[in-house]
Amino acid sequence: MITFTIVTPQGVLYKDSIDKVTIPTQAGAITVYPEHIPVVSALRAGELNIHKGNDVVNLAISTGVVEIRPNSIVYVLADTAERSNEIDVDRAELAKKRAEELFAKEEKMLDIDFARLQAKIEKEIVRSSVGRKYRNV
Q1: CA 136 to centroid of chain Cα atoms
Q2: Within a 13 Å sphere around the CA of 136, how many CA atoms are in the beta-carbon half?
């Protein structure tokens, strides 16, 4: 079993012993099983899947860090994380549209503002996608 914890700035979102977890990293998605080698990696916005027995918890996460420690201990520190059944798809699509409109308006945008808007758009695309994918499951 893996001791798994996901934390956001709002606190611990999920903490339990699990069988495996698939995590979106900058290098690609990785699936962590018990006794995985130690790893520290940057997260990318994407879908995170937690498997415990026959149950699967699906989340939309944004950027952050994952740390896989010896003895099957995994920490995900994410800027945002939201369970698929709690995502308001319409709100996510509206937020994406507003960010895209801001992006289109700005002619001389600072690099930091460009990166923030790009990250916001990516996050909302993931939220919308994960929310729609599991809406009727």
Answers
A1: 20
A2: 0
pLDDT in tens, 95-107: 777 777 776 776 6
- CATH fit for domain 2-84, picks 3.40.50.150, 1.10.10.10, 3.40.50.300, 2.60.15.10: 2.60.15.10
Spatial distance between the Cα atoms of 92 and 121, rounded to a whole number of angstroms: 10
Distance CA 79, CA 99 (A): 18
With contact defined as beta carbons under 8 Å apart, do 66 and 48 qualify? Answer: no
Query: Does the global pTM surpass 0.85?
Result: no
Q: Is 100 in a helix, a strand, or coil?
A: helix
List 20's β-bridge partners, or say none. 51
